[in-house]
Amino acid sequence: MIRLISLRIHFAVLTLLGGCATSHVPEAIRDPTLPSPAVTEVQQRPEAFLGQRVRWGGNILDVHNAPETTRIEILARPLDRSGEPDGTAGGLGRFIVELAGFKDPTEYPKERRLTVVGPVTRIETRNVGDYPYPYPVVTGDVRYLWPSPPPLVNTVPPFAYPWYRPWYGPGFGPWYGPWYGPW
């Protein structure tokens, strides 16, 4: 009997560990040791970083398809240890990811989070409104499109009726009673 219980516990632990060990995120994206300068640092001194591999990520702003490549404009966000962009943090600048071939814009919708690893190939100046903005261009050798978070469901809590609280009963509560008066 004890041996059967021990076997079941070992099986459960191995199953849980096996589920944690498999990840769809590429190793290059999860590697926090890759030295990645800040986007603003590359904008200020591009000649020092041309050809250097970076690991950047953020929220997709726009997708442009050219005859040979797809260019994705991204608002950079800080990455956690696994390479996932923090969607709640402030922006760290903008950059462009260049991918070979055609990528359907519906597969890369706005506001989705994308992390890429690749070399900085050049700086390209584009207008953001009327402001000329220098975009570092990264050739995306490795990329990972993070899944959309589940939608938030706004549910009404049970006992939402304002005069009913199950611990006081209907019509009673700390704001009712003879010490508060009849109003």
Cα separation of the termini: 66 Å
- Structure classification: alpha+beta
CATH class wording of the domain at 26-145: Mainly Beta
Total helices: the number is 3
Strand order of the largest sheet: 1-2-3-5-4
DSSP strand tally:
8
CATH topology of the domain at 26-145: OB fold (Dihydrolipoamide Acetyltransferase, E2P)
- CATH architecture of the domain at 26-145, please? Beta Barrel
Spell out the CATH superfamily of the domain at 26-145: Nucleic acid-binding proteins
Radius of gyration computed on alpha carbons:
26 Å
Taken as a percent bin, the fraction of beta residues is 25-35%
Taking pLDDT < 50 over at least 5 consecutive residues as the criterion, the unreliable ranges are none
Question: Mean pLDDT, nearest integer?
Answer: 78
Q: Main β-sheet: number of strands, strand sense, barrel status?
A: 5 strands, mixed, barrel
Q: Give the helices and strands as they follow along the chain.
A: HHHEEEEEEEE
Helicity range of the residues? 10-25%
What is the general shape? Answer: elongated
Structure description:
- This protein has a domain at 26-145: Nucleic acid-binding proteins (OB fold (Dihydrolipoamide Acetyltransferase, E2P), Beta Barrel).
- The strands form 2 sheets. The protein has a 5-stranded mixed β-barrel with strand order 1-2-3-5-4. It has a two-stranded antiparallel sheet with strand order 7-8.
- 16% of the residues lie in helices and 33% in strands.
- By secondary structure, it is an alpha+beta fold.
- The protein contains 3 helices and 8 strands.
